[in-house]
Amino acid sequence: MQLITSISKMQDIARSARADGRRIAFVPTMGYLHEGHASLMREGRRCGDLLVLSIFVNPTQFGVGEDFDRYPRDMERDSAIARECGVDVIFAPSAQEMYPVGFQTYVNVEEISLPLCGASRPGHFRGVTTVVCKLFNIVMPHVALFGKKDYQQLAVIRRMAADLNMPVDVVGMPIIREPDGLAMSSRNKYLSPDERTSALCLSRSLQSARAAFHAGEREAERLKQMVQGIVTLEPAATIDYVELRHGETLEEVATVDDCTLLALAVRIGTTRLIDNCVLGEDD
Ligand code: AMP
Questions:
Q1: C-alpha radius of gyration, the chain, whole number
Q2: How far is the CA of 102 from the centre of ligand 1 (A)?
Q3: What is the per-residue pLDDT for 218?
Q4: What's the angle, vertex CA 149, arms to CA 28 and CA 171, rounded to 5?
Q5: Closest by alpha carbon to 27, among 188, 173, 125?
Q6: In the sheet that 237-246 helps form, which strands lie side by side, from edge to edge?
Q7: CA-closest candidate to residue 107, choices 146, 54, 156, 170
Q8: Per-chain mean pLDDT for the chain
Q9: Relative to the CA of 153, which ligand 1 atom is closest?
Q10: Do 29 and 37 touch, CB atoms closer than 8 A?
């Protein structure tokens, strides 16, 4: 396994793999790897000949006052996990390498970047699409794997790749959860033991809404109230949003169906967590 920090070296590796007819699979991450990331790497290993993992805590997707400075980082541990998952190349550039002095070009996907996390984190998706576009130009993947944990991010990246004719297959992978239901996230590290217990209200509320959907409930507003009711029972929890939207367009819906996305963002203490489900799908 190689550790590459230079953009031009990464591009040389990508070009030569392509010249040899090798299929490049790519998993972009911010590191502090867990089983969610591992599931993407394993799928990348299965469907590619050269597996590239990027680890880059991208400053442009963090707002002022967000957790950029304290986002967990552990390259040694990440390298061990990556090796175990069969990664060939870790691409871990510095912020300077990615955003040198004079940088001024951004990629913005319009409508579907606006609601949900886009509304509570203005500029977030502009940072995400910009860095993912750059990474695609550097790693030159045939296939790139993203988790449905960040459902809107996946939808925005799919839109970007389609709209800008990027020659890459964007693959969405299921949410990986802890045995008690908590969606895995690098940010779970911020939670105290009590907060970790409170955080279960996210997955629990999704489960209840899904059960109500399977029992015949089709009114978005009632499902939303059910989720809000469960989350607000937790004193440590503050709702950022609970929304039901079309699974592809992310437009609001009044009546739900199998393809409806139920997404929520909740602060547990000071930690902002997100989770979601598509009502008609199992995780
Ligand atoms: P991050 O390092 O948090 O930016 O995540 C990198 C990639 O891993 C993104 O495509 C995420 O959606 C994905 N990911 C993060 N957590 C999970 C999870 N619990 N299950 C599946 N994919 C995940």
A1: 19
A2: 30
A3: 98
A4: 55
A5: 173
A6: 237-246, 260-268, 271-278
A7: 156
A8: 98
A9: 12
A10: yes
pTM of the model as a whole: 0.98
Whether 141 contacts 168, CB under 8 Å: yes
Ligand 1: which residues within 6 Å by Cβ?
A: 29-30, 36-37, 39-40, 146-147, 149-150, 173, 175-176, 183-186
Distance in Å from the first CA to the final CA of the chain = 32
Segment 4-31 mean pLDDT: 98
pLDDT in tens, 248-274: 999 999 999 999 999 999 999 999 999
3-state secondary structure of 261: strand
- Which residue in this structure is represented by tokens 């907060």? 195
Write out the catalytic residue numbers.
37
Instruction: Tell whether the model's pLDDT for residue 81 goes beyond 80.
Output: yes
Q: Which atom of ligand 1 is nearest to the CA of 145?
A: 10
DSSP letters spanning 89-115: EEE---HHHHS-TT--------GGGSS
